[in-house]
């Protein structure tokens, strides 16, 4: 089999992994928005999703597992002129980082969070993740998971996120469109991407999502929170809405901090970085 590479780096994702489609979606969206790499902060979580760090060009960092969101918040507060994007899996964002996720929604931090939602921890060989359905069997739950799944859309909606959307890794066109809208939105944006794990999740496959996803109609009222919550709960019936469920406007976190009238990096204290670091040497 021919080895697939990006810019000289060998890709480590399994052939057919949904990460390929998500990478195409993010890269194409940023290119179509005409972003220069120097205009974007990228905060990666740990896991298969984090391997995308090698394949996207921008100011990027790997956080600790579950800590990609607070890292991005720090980036945004330090230089809120920069577009800031979090890329992580359902385990890192909704599991280990669940507390950070809900408080970022509450604060309406001006970041875009793109989640690879495949219902398993793929990098560590398929243990159950927070979005897996009750009864799902994995290496960590051989008799089936006891808990009910986290509903990321409903969680974001009820905790104050001002942009909530969902896409499917097998639908590149919609993924690109939704990511562009999320990045352009001022405030906290969630893009939950249904991502088949072809190696460890044999239930939520491409065929499964092609059968059970549907695109929201143009007539869907994105400003109606109640309707958005209603749509988010359709997952209980095995239906997955695709598109922008909800969008509203309110001041983002950094805009409500009077002391952040200008980015921290523009302050005189940081103009000569060597003098700043000398304080700690």
TrEMBL record:
Entries under Gene3D superfamilies matching the protein: 3.40.50.970
GO biological process terms, semicolon-separated: cellular respiration
Location of the Pyruvate ferredoxin oxidoreductase beta subunit C-terminal domain: 197-260
Pfam families per the UniProt record, alphabetical: PFO_beta_C, TPP_enzyme_C
Keyword field: Iron, Iron-sulfur, Magnesium, Metal-binding, Oxidoreductase, Thiamine pyrophosphate
Residue intervals passing through the bilayer: none
Cofactors (names): Mg(2+); thiamine diphosphate; [4Fe-4S] cluster
All residue ranges annotated as the Thiamine pyrophosphate enzyme TPP-binding domain in the record: 45-193
MF (Gene Ontology): iron-sulfur cluster binding; metal ion binding; oxidoreductase activity, acting on the aldehyde or oxo group of donors, iron-sulfur protein as acceptor; thiamine pyrophosphate binding
Highest taxon, organism lineage: Bacteria
Alphabetized InterPro entries for the sequence: 2-oxoacid:Fd_oxidoreductase, OFOB, PFO_beta_C, THDP-binding, TPP_enzyme_TPP-bd
Alphabetized PANTHER family for the sequence: 2-OXOGLUTARATE OXIDOREDUCTASE SUBUNIT KORB (PTHR48084:SF4), 2-OXOGLUTARATE OXIDOREDUCTASE SUBUNIT KORB-RELATED (PTHR48084)
Protein name (Swiss-Prot/TrEMBL): 2-oxoacid ferredoxin oxidoreductase
Organism of derivation: Candidatus Roizmanbacteria bacterium CG11_big_fil_rev_8_21_14_0_20_36_8
């Amino acid at each position: 089999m021919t080895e697939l590479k990006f810019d000289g780096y060998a890709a480590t994702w399994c052939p057919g992994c949904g990460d390929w489609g998500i990478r195409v979606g993010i890269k194409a969206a940023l290119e179509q928005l005409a972003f220069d790499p120097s205009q974007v902060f990228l905060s990666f979580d740990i896991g298969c999703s984090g391997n995308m760090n090698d394949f996207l060009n921008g100011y990027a960092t790997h956080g600790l597992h579950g800590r990609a969101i607070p890292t991005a918040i720090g980036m945004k507060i330090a230089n809120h002129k920069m577009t800031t994007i979090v890329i992580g899996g359902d385990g890192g964002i909704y599991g280990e980082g669940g507390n950070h996720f809900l408080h970022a929604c509450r604060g309406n931090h001006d970041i875009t969070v793109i989640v690879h939602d495949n219902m398993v921890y793929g990098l560590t060989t398929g243990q159950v993740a927070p979005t897996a359905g009750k009864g799902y069997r994995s290496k960590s739950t051989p008799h089936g998971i006891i808990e009910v799944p986290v509903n990321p859309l409903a969680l974001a909606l009820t905790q104050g996120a001002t942009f909530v959307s969902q896409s499917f890794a097998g639908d590149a066109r919609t993924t690109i469109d939704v990511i562009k809208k999320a990045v352009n939105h001022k405030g906290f944006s969630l893009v939950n991407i249904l991502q088949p794990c072809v190696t460890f999740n044999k239930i939520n496959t491409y065929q499964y999502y092609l059968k059970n996803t549907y695109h929201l109609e143009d007539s869907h009222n994105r400003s109606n929170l109640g309707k958005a919550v209603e749509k988010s709960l359709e997952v209980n019936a095995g239906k997955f809405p695709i598109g922008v469920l909800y969008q509203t406007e309110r001041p983002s976190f950094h805009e409500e901090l009077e002391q952040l009238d200008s980015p921290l990096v523009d302050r005189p204290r940081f103009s000569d970085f060597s003098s700043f670091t000398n304080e700690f040497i």
